[in-house]
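2024-03-11 09:14:02 DEBUG pipeline.ingest accepted 1 chain
2024-03-11 09:14:02 DEBUG pipeline.ingest length=116
2024-03-11 09:14:03 DEBUG pipeline.predict start
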Amino acid sequence: MTSRFRRRRAVLFAFLVAAGSAGAEDDWTTTRESFLCKSNAEVREIKTYISNSSDSDLAMARGCRVDYIKNGMTKTIWSSRTSRSYCDGKASRLAARLEASHFSCSPLRLQRTDEG
């Protein structure tokens, strides 16, 4: 399996997981980290959300997701049920990749009140 195919499969899986949990969208209201990336003609945004679930399920309460906004379309590109730091790292690395592609990225909010 090629790495390109694996990446597409991972993105599709993350999208399907997000679509399947549409009823629980209210649990994803806290933005943990956000980047605004601009080039000459484009603006992109990377947002990391943490779960505000009050469920007794500890794994869900520690969850996170990363949304990528490009051309007005929002896609969830990564998620974790157990590690918020996973999403933070993915969002930071994506911002660095965009900067390497001639975007200028600036953090909009950084809220690290808990590590995980």
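2024-03-11 09:14:41 DEBUG pipeline.report Strands lie at 30-38, 43-50, 64-70, 73-80, 104-110.
2024-03-11 09:14:41 DEBUG pipeline.predict end
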